[in-house]
Amino acid sequence: MIDLVDLAQARRDSNWQRRGFLDKVFLPDEQQRIRTASDPDRMVWTLWSMKESVYKQHLVAGRAFVPLQIHCFELDRDSGLGRVSYQQSCLYTQTQHTHPYILTLASTVPVFDRARVLCLAESSYASQHGTLRQAIRSEAALRYGDGAFVKDADGAPYWQQTTTGLNIPLGISHHGHYGAFVLPTV
Amino acid sequence: MNETQLIESLKEIIKPYVQDEEAFVQLSPESNFIKDLKINSANLVDIVLDVEEAYQIEIDNESMERMQTVGAAMDIIREKVSD
């Protein structure tokens, strides 16, 4: 549903200019977008987050690493709207750009929920994760009423509503110093 | 190259990308790169490229797809080296 890329963190972790890197991840038309972009680095991570959204929607069996089978076939730079396909499935994406991060939302229909982004203080990954989790719990309780934060066998997060027993799927992403979440409208 | 040598050289390649120290210490052929060693998927590409360079082999997409665990990486290296 949602993928956030902290650009400074991504630059620390990966060197996409490395020989052979782009060929393993991006199709020819995607590499063309990167080559002609005014900010190729940002384009790389935009396309990467679009592909990542396919994994987050659990469309790839066993979470096999198959970036070349996932095609970002549409991307409008101005609106940030895009489309990505994998086998028979197709997702709409919307990428928001800020100086420090990129945030991509994905949906099966061209309607996107609003995401909340948190800037997580300089500290351990574990404590940042705790802060993010706390914020999600507070908002989910407000929005959906009493419940519990649960994960399924694949590690996908849900808010389990106390009154109905319903599991509401949540969108969460944590990268570098930023965390984001989406509480879908039900 | 025997099993021990192979796993030791692979460990050296993987080490810079592992985010879970304890899992690295307990590394075995069953260790899953993403789930157990907490390697982020962009760095999985780096590992594939590092392995290609170290062993002078080419890892095609179908092989990369299979390379989810340390053991799978070892199988693929053996396959490609004998090609």
Q: Could you characterize the architecture of this molecule?
A:
Chain A is α+β, with helices and mostly antiparallel strands and 186 residues long. Chain A has helices at 7-13, 21-25, 28-36, 40-56, 125-144; strands spanning 2-6, 70-75, 81-86, 89-97, 101-107, 115-119, 147-151, 157-161, 167-169, 171-175, 178-182. In chain A, α3 (28-36) packs antiparallel against α4 (40-56). The mean pLDDT of chain A is 93. Chain B contains 5 helices and no strands. Chain B has helices at residues 3-14, 21-25, 41-55, 61-66, 70-81. The longest helix of chain B has 15 residues, at 41-55. In chain B, 28% of the residues are buried.
How is this fold's topology laid out?
The complex is a heterodimer of chains A (186) and B (83).
Chain A lengths: L1 E5 H7 L7 H5 L2 H9 L3 H17 L13 E6 L5 E6 L2 E9 L3 E7 L7 E5 L5 H20 L2 E5 L5 E5 L5 E3 L1 E5 L2 E5 L4
Antiparallel strand pairs in A: 1-5, 2-3, 3-4, 4-5, 6-11, 7-8, 8-9, 10-11
Helix pairs in contact in A: 3-4
Chain B lengths: L2 H12 L6 H5 L15 H15 L5 H6 L3 H12 L2
